[in-house]
Amino acid sequence: QSFNQVPSYPGLDKLVHTGMFFVFCTLIYNGILVQFKGRPSKWIPVFIVSILGILFGLLTEALQYYIFTYRSGDWWDLFADCVGIGRSGFAYLLFYVKRNRKREKK
User: What are the pLDDT digits (tens) for 43-70?
Assistant: First the structure.
């Protein structure tokens, strides 16, 4: 079978962008938790990871728009990247709150 015969649907590209940036930022949050031995601050990592993720998304879209001829940069791809970044930050905050509640009960 050729790759063109693989079923697809509109918006699959945006879903992939969201998922990739969710995983990317979640791995960074995991690194922060390991680096600070599970006791990082609450909002500083969210701010830093969000800024880094948005800058990386801007870089990749700019490279696609200006450099690569076989790819095209798209504002909606950047928006999907930001959705993945936001979802990852939300998951981190939920984990942070859950983890602190467990510590308070001890």
Answer: 899 999 999 999 999 999 999 988 887 7
68: phi > 0 → left, psi -120 to 50 → alpha, else beta; which?
beta
Tell which residue, 44, 54, 47, 58, has the closest CA to residue 24: 54
Q: Give pTM, 2 decimals.
A: 0.84
| Cβ-contact 69, 6 below 8 angstroms | no
Closest CA to 26 of 100, 94, 79: 94
Q: Which of 58, 89, 87, 63 is nearest to 75 (CA)?
A: 58
What's the residue count for the chain?
A: 106
In whole angstroms, give the CA distance from residue 34 to residue 78.
29
106 burial via Cβ count (<10 Å: 0-12, 13-18, 19+): exposed
